Each structure stands twice: as structure tokens, then as C-alpha cells.
Q: What sequence folds into this?
């Protein structure tokens, strides 16, 4: 059963359209991550689901009930804010109990719900403290606890880890993953600009850009089979390399020729009409390996070496008509700046994009 | 070497403090102490120097019916101005903090009384209160058919008329503090409460109002001080009359000191005013302490 359903949803402020034609079905128990660059509309979309922003086009339903004009409190949602949004003058206990108190629930019921949430999040020792006496990670746990107490159908997370330092971010991310496991029937929608959070937490990722959905899919599906150049470059770090090329032979396999390198046979089907079409050949930095072969995919001078121990990142000069190409090699490589290297890649891991940026695999 | 440097730091420190200290001592501390000393002396007249008379001035004060009258007036004045001006300020701030067409104009209009000199606006209000053809008589006469009222000339209405002018003057000033506090309040708090099902009324009483407590404390201490300090308009509107009906403590002190030239007794009354203000300010801190949440 679909838990949250968006049909042709759009948002405009006056004549400025920030989201258009959003169609998405979210299943019960799914953890969906909205990811995209700043200003892509991901937070706005989440706030529209929460009811904090009006929906100017299309329909939103939660559990098959149209929610466009239902106030936030009656949508069966709970929201965790980036800035925690804890009430600074209330103790942790009162913060978590606030919603139930104003709903005039019986005291025993409130107490039971608060202690259950506190137990799950290990907040029991802090129940009588004020938020200012807690660390950032603890405050975010209280905010999550406040959401749990509401026992919602859908949890909404708006960049919940962005205000935490790097170590806490990893720890809290793992906590959220455990939390999701312990509540298999809760649907969660999670907004982030951090692709590591997206990849590690999501059942499915929704990549947004400029008010549109670029692609929806499981994390590895997006990584291995991006629909277009934007998704290809947004998922994965460093971003996918794109090399200019022209189709020279079509069929079940496609051969492309390049001005500054040998022809490459890519095991992706193409049509006769693609002949002589300009395309972009995509290869992920981590799919490149060093080679001695004469007909290497890339031959270029090393501009910069970043030795990280677990990987060595090479920034190459000159390959692909000046635009920098990046190679990410596992382990430690004694490559010096200024040396010429040759790199190859498994043809099965190459991508082809047409002039419009659409992947040949998705046409 | 080290001692020299320490001494130099010490000198620099005092030099930096000096300008502020000179003014603070010249206009606050020395006059206060002098008043306290003078309150134990008789008023010097002609060739007769002031002489120490102990608590005689204080005895006179306790037996002075006008002192009790103006003190009572002052308490009524305080009770009339403080809650009304603070409450009005909060309502105006909430109003102009929301989305509202002509918001800038409304903010300016509310703040205007603060920038105008009290003496000048008192003259305008004098016209409003004029019996027969003043604004109020025209308004109430036209709406309810009331007969002409001498707002400033009748002992029953004089003080209340002065109170209205004071509220009008002060509310806009306090509004600015509330507005600043409201704008510093994170929007996400209100959004979180909305998601949890709180309506506007609940959000105000459970979230906004408690978080405004530091501002309320600050504003109300200022309002208390002002209720003893603002007398400019009384000179224009009623001159304390009729029969001291609109005289407050500071006005009475002015009359004793500079109309009757009884500086000794005026010093005694001043000490009484200072003690009263101190007690009120300390009391307010204790009263509010438990309820004020500083972030």
C-alpha cells in the first residue's frame, strides 16, 4: 500500500515556479531520501508534505487520503528540524510531552510514551534537563524522541545531521539507521544534501534538481545506472568523468571515436540514427586503473596527487581537451606530479550520454 | 619590568574608564549621596547656614498629607500605565511582526510617539482634552451624546487623562523591544508546535510568551522607572492640579525644591523616591527570576 503519494505536485511563489510535476509513490515502511544541490526544492517539497507550505498544484495523499488542505497536526506526520527546534524553556521531558499535553491525553499515557521514546534513544538520564544543558547530538535525539512520541505514520527529517560535527554525524546517522530497523512500519522521508547519508540510509533515493525529479531508485541503481549526466555526476565522489566523443559504429555495441584518444567499444546498444552523433563517454574515477597498454583509455600528465592512504586520487591535466579528469586508485601509489600515466577501465562500467545528457541505457 | 608593565596596564584601564566614570559620578552618584546627606539638614536661608536636624525632615514627611496624596497618585499612575503600556506594546509588536499590508507604515506610526518630545505632544493632547470643542468631547458627544467634560480640570479625571497620554507615549517604545525579540525567535519553534497540533493561542501562551520573558522583565523595569520619572507632560496638562489630583512624587519634589525652595525637605523626598525605586527593581528581579528563561 502506498503511504505517501504525490501526483503532479507543484509549488510556485507568485510567478516563480520552484517545483513542478512531482510524481512519487512512497510505500509504507520505506525510507526515502530527497537529495539534491542547494535550492533544488527538496526542503520545500518536504515542508509541503508536512503542511508548513501550501501546495499550489497537484495532489498529496497520505494513506489514500487527500491532504492538501489538512493542517499539519492532522496529517499523521512528525518532523525533525535541522535546528532541532526544541522549546528552550522546557525540560527534555516537557519537550517530548508537549504535543500530547496540548492534545489533553491522560497523564499515564503521556508518561508511558515519553519513557518509551527516552528508552529507545537512551535519553533517560537527561529527562529533567533543559535543552541548553545538552550536546548537539543529544538535542537532535530529543527532537527525534519528540517525533517518536507522536507515533506518526510518516517521519519527516529536514537535514537532521547538518548542524552536527563530523564524528557525531556518523554516530547519529547510524542511530537513525537502527531506529528505522526497530520501526519497520514507519515511513520516513529524509532530506539531505549529503550523498553519503543518502546512500547509506535510503531504501530509495529521489534526486532533485531545479524543481524536477531527475531520477528515483535504489542507491546502487543510481550509482550503477544513472539516467542522465546530472545524476551521474551528483552521485559518487569525486564526480564521474565525462569525455567528449563521436559515435563511429552502431549496433548491439557502440564504438566511439575521440579527438585525443583511441576509439572505444562500449557494450551499450545504439541505433543507426546515432551514427556520427556527438556523445559524452562517462567513466567513474574509481573505475580507472593504471595500465601499460598503448591503447589506454586515457593518457595524461598528473597535475596533483592526493594520497589518502586507503585511496590515491590523481588529478590529470590535458586529457579530454583541458577539462580535468580524476582517477581514484585503491591503496597507495608512488605516482609523482608531472609524470605521464595511462589508465584503462572495464568497458562494462562505461556510460554513454547523448547531447541532451540522457544515458543511452535509459533511452 | 613585569611590575612596570602591570602598572601601565592598570593606568590604561583607569584612563579608559575615566570619561564614563566622571559623568556617572557627577550626575548620578555624587548627587545621590548629597541628597542623602542634605536630607538630614535644614534648608539654608540667607545668612543662616544649613544645620544638622537628624530625622526631623523624615518626621515631617510622614506627617505631610500631600506626600501621601502624591504617593497614592503615583501608585495609581504606575498601575494605570505599566500593565497597559506593556500589554499594548506586546499586542502591537505581535501585530506588526506578522504579514500585514503596510507593515512598515504601521511600525513607524506606533513608534512616532517615542521620538516626539513629551512637552510638545502634551500641547497637542491639551487640545484633544479641551472641554467643548476638543477631540474627545466632539467624539463622545457625537457618538454617545455625552455632555461636555472638563477632562483635565476635574479631580476625578485629571490623573486618568495624564495616564492615557503616558501610555500613548510609552507603548511604541516598548513595542520596539518586543519586536526585536520576536524577530530573533526561530521560526522553526512555531513550526514545530504547529506540527504538534498547537493553535495560535497555545503557541502564544506556551512558546512565544515564555520566551519573551527576558524582554518583559526589561520592559517592565523600564516602565516602573518611567512611571516615577515621566512628569514633563503634567506641567503642560494640569500642573499637578486640581488640588494635587494629578501630582506625582517627582512633580511634588520639583515643586518643593524649586517653587518653595525647601531643598532640605526636597532631598528627603528624593531619598524616599530612590529607596522606593530600588525596592521595586529588586522585587521585580526576584518576582520574575523563576519565570525568566535566558537562552
A:
Amino acid at each position: 500500500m502506498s503511504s505517501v503519494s504525490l501526483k503532479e505536485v507543484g509549488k510556485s511563489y507568485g510567478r516563480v515556479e520552484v517545483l513542478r510535476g512531482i510524481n512519487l509513490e512512497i510505500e509504507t515502511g520505506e525510507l526515502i531520501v530527497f537529495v539534491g544541490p542547494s535550492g533544488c526544492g527538496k526542503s520545500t517539497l518536504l515542508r509541503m508534505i508536512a503542511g508548513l507550505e501550501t501546495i499550489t498544484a497537484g495532489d498529496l495523499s497520505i494513506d489514500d487520503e487527500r491532504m492538501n488542505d489538512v493542517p499539519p497536526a492532522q496529517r499523521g506526520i512528525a518532523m525533525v528540524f535541522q535546528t532541532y527546534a526544541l522549546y528552550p524553556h522546557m525540560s527534555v521531558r516537557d519537550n517530548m510531552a508537549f504535543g500530547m499535553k496540548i492534545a489533553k491525553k491522560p497523564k499515564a499515557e503521556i508518561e508511558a510514551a515519553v519513557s518509551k521514546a527516552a528508552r529507545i534513544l537512551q535519553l533517560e538520564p537527561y529527562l529533567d534537563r533543559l535543552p541548553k544543558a545538552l550536546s548537539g547530538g543529544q538535542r537532535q535525539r530529543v527532537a527525534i524522541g519528540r517525533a517518536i512520541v507522536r507515533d506518526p505514520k510518516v517521519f519527516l527529517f529536514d537535514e537532521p545531521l547538518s548542524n552536527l560535527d563530523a564524528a557525531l554525524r556518523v554516530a547519529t546517522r547510524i542511530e537513525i539507521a537502527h531506529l528505522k530497523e526497530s520501526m519497520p512500519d514507519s515511513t520516513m522521508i529524509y532530506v539531505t544534501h549529503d550523498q553519503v547519508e543518502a546512500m547509506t540510509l535510503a531504501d530509495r533515493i529521489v534526486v532533485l534538481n531545479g524543481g524536477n525529479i531527475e531520477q528515483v531508485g535504489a542507491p546502487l541503481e543510481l550509482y550503477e545506472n544513472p539516467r542522465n549526466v546530472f545524476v551521474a555526476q551528483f552521485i559518487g565522489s569525486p564526480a564521474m568523468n565525462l569525455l567528449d566523443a563521436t559515435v563511429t559504429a552502431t549496433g548491439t555495441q557502440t564504438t566511439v571515436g575521440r579527438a585525443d584518444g583511441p576509439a572505444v567499444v562500449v557494450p551499450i546498444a545504439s541505433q543507426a540514427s546515432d551514427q556520427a552523433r556527438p556523445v559524452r563517454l562517462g567513466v567513474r574515477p574509481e573505475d580507472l586503473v593504471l595500465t601499460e597498454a598503448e591503447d589506454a583509455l586515457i593518457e595524461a600528465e598528473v597535475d596533483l596527487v592526493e594520497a589518502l592512504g586507503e585511496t590515491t586520487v590523481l588529478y590529470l591535466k590535458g586529457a579530454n581537451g583541458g577539462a580535468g579528469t580524476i582517477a581514484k586508485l585503491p591503496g597507495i601509489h608512488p605516482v609523482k606530479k608531472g609524470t605521464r600515466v595511462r589508465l584503462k577501465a572495464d568497458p562494462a562500467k562505461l556510460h554513454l550520454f547523448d547531447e541532451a545528457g540522457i544515458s543511452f541505457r535509459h533511452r | 619590568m613585569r611590575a612596570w608593565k602591570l602598572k601601565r596596564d592598570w593606568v590604561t584601564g583607569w584612563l579608559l574608564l575615566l570619561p564614563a566614570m566622571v559623568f556617572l559620578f557627577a550626575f548620578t552618584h555624587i548627587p545621590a549621596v548629597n541628597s542623602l546627606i542634605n536630607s538630614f539638614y535644614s534648608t539654608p536661608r540667607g545668612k543662616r547656614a544649613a544645620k544638622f536636624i537628624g530625622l526631623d525632615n523624615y518626621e515631617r514627611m510622614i506627617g505631610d498629607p500631600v506626600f501621601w496624596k502624591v504617593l497614592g497618585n503615583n501608585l495609581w499612575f504606575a498601575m494605570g500605565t505599566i500593565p497597559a503600556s506593556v500589554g499594548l506594546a506586546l499586542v502591537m509588536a505581535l501585530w506588526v511582526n506578522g504579514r500585514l499590508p503596510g507593515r512598515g507604515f504601521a511600525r513607524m506610526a506606533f513608534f512616532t510617539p517615542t521620538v516626539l518630545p513629551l512637552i510638545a505632544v502634551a500641547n497637542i493632547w491639551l487640545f484633544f482634552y479641551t472641554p467643548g470643542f476638543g477631540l474627545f468631547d466632539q467624539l463622545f458627544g457625537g457618538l454617545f451624546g455625552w455632555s461636555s467634560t472638563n477632562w483635565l480640570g476635574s479631580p476625578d479625571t485629571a490623573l486618568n487623562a495624564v495616564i492615557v497620554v503616558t501610555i500613548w507615549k510609552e507603548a511604541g517604545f516598548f513595542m520596539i523591544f518586543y519586536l526585536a525579540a520576536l524577530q530573533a525567535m526561530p521560526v522553526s519553534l512555531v513550526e514545530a508546535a504547529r506540527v504538534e497540533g498547537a493553535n495560535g493561542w497555545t503557541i502564544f501562551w506556551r512558546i512565544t510568551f515564555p520566551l519573551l520573558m527576558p524582554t518583559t522583565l526589561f520592559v517592565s523595569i523600564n516602565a516602573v522607572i518611567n512611571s516615577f520619572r515621566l512628569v514633563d507632560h503634567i506641567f503642560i496638562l494640569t500642573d499637578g492640579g486640581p488640588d494635587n489630583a494629578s501630582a506625582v512624587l517627582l512633580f511634588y519634589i520639583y515643586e518643593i525644591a524649586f517653587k518653595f525652595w525647601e531643598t532640605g525637605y526636597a532631598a528627603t523626598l528624593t531619598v524616599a523616591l530612590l529607596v522606593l525605586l530600588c525596592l521595586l527593581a529588586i522585587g521585580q528581579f526576584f518576582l520574575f527570576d523563576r519565570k525568566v528563561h535566558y537562552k
